[in-house]
Design goal:
Chain lengths: 151, 239
């Protein structure tokens, strides 16, 4: 085996071992790498009282209610399997609307309601002009039936 | 490949393509910017803010691509001892770091209006920040030794170790829940982006790619000249 061959194999072996090590570390840390849990993930998670977590899902259609003072908002985050009622007071992101993906950060209260201290909007990977979105909806080929385009 | 490891042969080829690359960079970036800023529709959901994409996405692609080039060059320098490969890796690093910084900054500017946060510690954003630090670490290490060969060896190994981050960045949005969206263009079932927005994006990506090639040729030329000067000085000092 020439020296070049030996160095080639050393580099390849090093990369394979690094890959395995990274995969093991990331698998072990999976719970800290995820940015949020879905409402149905949450059912099986033992949580310390008052632990800060993030949950993500869609804002359930027809669930958004503003309090009379206009600051507090109540809505339901759903992943179509489980729902969590959320209350939040503060400024909502522009993309926040019913049917939109959101990530809320805060604490789960004893009654099962979620008190959010931050609401982030999550958008999907689809990009299209507004006319195309309207045409798809008219043709009934819209994937997110309850989602409204931003005004 | 091995043929171009010879610096003078590389210089002949590089000097021949340089004006074409520079000219095409200007043309593609001019056309791309026109379509990105004026000649493309707003997004149904994000409105005019979507125009940040035409800078953010190509710079993110280039951040990964340049790192891949740098790691491949470092590997061929470590394995086959091509002297030119070290110069290419060293010349590519600051360009890649620049693309990564543009990607992080434009992403932050995009995140505030759309998500409601300048920065979040999700897997995609964090792994790209790690990529930026890998670039900075490479640049620091390659310049840290009096003997350039030792710098190339140490930095080359760091570049190879960092390769493990590239698939993590690419697949972070599929492996874990992230706030960052999944891939819109490079996905198995075809782009999820309307052609009226995809074409300007690809024009910009082409412009960024040729910009990289142009600047890389200029920087490698400078490194070859610097190496010649160093050798001359050494032989003069020896008398």
């Amino acid at each position: 085996m020439t020296r070049k061959r030996r160095r080639l194999y050393a580099v390849l072996a090093g990369l394979v071992m690094l890959g395995i090590a990274a995969a093991l570390v990331l698998t072990a840390l999976r719970d800290s790498v995820v940015f949020f849990y879905s409402p149905s993930d949450l059912a099986g998670k033992p949580l310390a009282a008052g632990q800060r977590i993030r949950i993500g899902g869609l804002v359930a259609a027809g669930s958004v209610a503003k309090s009379p003072d206009g600051v507090a908002t109540r809505f339901t985050v759903t992943d179509m399997k489980a729902d969590i009622p959320v209350s939040y007071s503060g400024i909502l992101p522009d993309l926040f609307r019913e049917g939109q993906g959101v990530v809320v950060e805060g604490r789960l209260e004893p009654g099962g309601a979620f008190q959010a201290s931050e609401v982030l909007a999550k958008h999907d990977e689809n990009y299209m002009p507004p006319e195309v979105a309207d045409a798809l909806k008219r043709a009934g080929r819209w994937k997110h039936a309850d989602e409204q385009p931003a005004k | 490949m091995h043929r171009f490891a010879n610096p003078s042969r590389f210089l002949r080829a590089a000097n021949a393509v340089l004006p074409w690359c520079a000219g095409l960079t200007v043309l593609l970036l001019a056309a791309g910017l026109y379509f990105a800023l004026l000649g493309s529709p707003p997004d149904y959901q994000q409105g005019e803010t979507v125009r940040i994409m035409y800078i953010h996405v190509p710079s993110a692609w280039m951040a990964l691509f340049v790192y891949g080039c740098m790691a491949a060059a470092s590997a061929s320098a470590l394995i086959w001892r091509h002297p030119l490969a070290d110069l290419i890796a060293k010349s590519a690093a600051p360009i890649g770091a620049g693309f990564t910084l543009i990607c992080l900054l434009t992403g932050s500017l995009w995140g505030k209006p759309m998500w409601g946060a300048w920065w979040v510690w999700d897997a995609r954003l964090t792994s790209v920040l790690v990529l930026f630090f890998l670039y900075l670490g490479y640049i620091a290490l390659v310049n840290a030794f009096d003997d350039p060969v030792r710098g190339y060896r140490a930095a080359g190994i760091l570049a190879l170790v960092g390769v493990v981050n590239l698939p993590i960045i690419k697949f972070s949005v599929d492996w874990w829940n992230t706030l960052h969206q999944p891939a819109s263009v490079m996905r198995l079932d075809g782009p999820a982006i309307h052609p009226a927005m995809l074409w300007p994006l690809l024009l910009m990506a082409g412009g960024f790619m040729l910009f990289f090639v142009t600047v890389l040729i200029l920087r490698v030329r400078g490194e070859i000249a610097a190496a010649k000067v160093r050798n001359l000085q050494l032989s003069l000092a020896r008398g």
